[in-house]
Specification:
- It is a single chain.
- The chain has 418 residues and is an alpha/beta fold.
- Helices cover 41% and strands 14% of the residues.
- It has 15 helices and twelve strands.
- It has helices at residues 2-7, 30-44, 70-76, 91-108, 136-144, 147-157, 162-184, 192-200, 222-236, 260-264, 276-288, 308-320, 345-348, 353-356, 369-386, and strands at residues 18-23, 51-57, 60-61, 64-65, 82-85, 112-117, 240-244, 269-271, 292-297, 329-335, 362-364, 389-395.
- The strands form three sheets. The chain has a six-stranded parallel beta sheet with strand order 8-7-9-10-12-11, with helices on both faces. A four-stranded parallel beta sheet has the order 1-2-6-5, sandwiched between helices.
- Strand 7 (240-244), helix 10 (260-264) and strand 8 form a beta-alpha-beta unit.
- The relative contact order is 0.11.
């Protein structure tokens, strides 16, 4: 998103980079593996991708130990990612490694990996008693490696007096205490309305998106109506992007995006690698950098291995940031019953329950061309005024349907009513 903004003339981005941090256990998670694969895949094609992956390695995932050497081996075997490893203990070594990694990403605009040598002083969480899986000797060794104490010793060795160190500690403690009191006095979420407020608030100061006059008097199929709606969004909003596994030159499995790449160019309509988690992750990042992404998931059944990117990321960001950040996007998913004897369970699993159960998500199902045009225009308004995330489930069986009562009557076709 950072690089694409500049290429599309949507404003300078300078030397901005993206930083993703995680623990040593998390590198084994499918979302992390997918992200690292996508970064290497993009770099392999010489796409600019200024992202720094930071692994904070303390050797433990809750109570499960990371095998010695696994993180370093993993880092060195990642294709097209430069690996930076901390060359010793302490804040100084961490700073040197981090500085080198950041400078590399800024200069080359390519992805890199940084491993930080960390120490865990307490349990994983409040309920985690680490004495049940860590020996007393190990805990004492961890305390001896406390980075604050290590740094204090390094400062003392460089000539800083004990009085100066104690004064620094006193000022820091006062600052922390002030923050604690501020948090204690902050307003709490005490009822349903306050919990949902960040998800449902409307930005009334933002203008309503202008609805265009009808652009076609033809009677259209649902597929033609969706194609017209997408074309309209691309033409009206220069920050709109459409992407998915086959949406570019081919125009999608059912031809819904046909002709859009040719008209608007490969920077705005493009194919992705075959990974739904990456498609949603790309959409999340694009929305945070000022784009209106319209990702396509080929079939509703393909949603399920990536649904947490909607539930746990897109629809919670607004809540946890109290509205400071938003993920406006329009997700397109082909689905619902469509044809006999085709595709097996990976195509015909059409459960909508997971979508209905996500707080704040807007779900739309257009049936005719007029529906699609009206709903996509409303979606644009919700994205721009309220930063909402929407999912369009498009009925495959109705994409190219023309008739209503008898063959040739054209009763299912409809006109753009504005």
């Amino acid at each position: 998103g950072i690089e694409r903004r500049a290429r599309l003339g949507l404003g300078p981005t300078g030397d901005a980079i993206v930083v993703c941090s995680f623990g040593d256990a998390s590198i084994n998670h499918s979302t992390a593996l997918g992200a690292l694969n996508a970064a290497g895949w993009a770099a392999h094609q010489h796409h600019k991708l200024p992202v720094l992956f930071v692994c904070e390695d303390n050797g433990l995932g809750i109570s499960v130990r990371t095998p010695p050497g696994w993180v370093e081996l993993r880092a060195r075997t990642l294709p097209n990612l430069e690996a930076f490893l901390q060359d010793g203990p302490g804040l100084g070594a961490a700073y040197r490694a981090a500085s080198a990694a950041v400078a590399h990403v800024r200069r080359t605009r390519s992805p890199a990996w940084l491993t930080l040598d960390c120490v865990r002083l307490l349990g994983h969480a409040g309920s985690d008693v680490d004495t049940s899986y860590r020996s007393r000797q190990e805990l004492e060794q961890a305390l001896a490696r406390d980075p604050l104490l290590e740094h204090a010793r390094a400062l003392a060795a460089s000539g800083v007096s004990a009085a100066e160190l104690l004064e620094l500690e006193r000022r820091t403690r006062e600052r922390v205490d002030r923050e604690v009191e501020h948090v204690r006095g902050a307003q709490k979420l005490s009822d349903r309305a306050s919990v949902m407020s960040a998800l449902t608030q409307s930005h009334t100061e933002r203008p309503v998106a202008a609805l265009p006059a009808p652009v076609s008097n033809e009677r259209l199929t649902l597929a033609q109506g969706i194609n017209l709606a997408l074309s309209e969004l691309l033409a009206q909003r220069k920050n709109t992007l459409i992407f998915g596994e086959d949406v570019g030159k081919k125009g999608g499995v059912y031809g819904l995006t046909k002709g859009l790449q040719e008209r608007f160019g490969p920077l705005r309509v493009f194919d992705t690698l075959l990974d739904e988690q990456t498609i949603f992750g790309l959409s999340l990042g694009m929305s945070l950098t000022g784009f209106l992404p319209i990702p396509e998931i080929q079939y509703l059944a393909y949603l399920h291995n990536a649904e947490d990117q909607l539930r746990g990321e897109a629809l919670t960001l607004r809540f946890f940031s109290n509205g400071a950040y938003e993920n406006p996007m329009i997700v397109r998913i082909a689905g619902l019953a469509y044809q006999k004897g085709f595709g097996g369970h990976f195509h015909n699993d059409n459960s909508l329950a997971v979508l209905r159960d996500i707080p704040g998500l807007v779900v739309a199902v257009p049936a005719r061309a007029a529906d699609a045009l009206a709903l996509y225009r409303c979606a644009l308004d919700l994205c721009e005024r309220e930063g909402r995330t929407l999912v369009f489930v498009e009925p495959i069986a109705l994409y190219h349907h023309r008739d209503l009562l008898a063959e040739g009557d054209g009763g299912w076709l409809s006109r753009d009513t504005g």
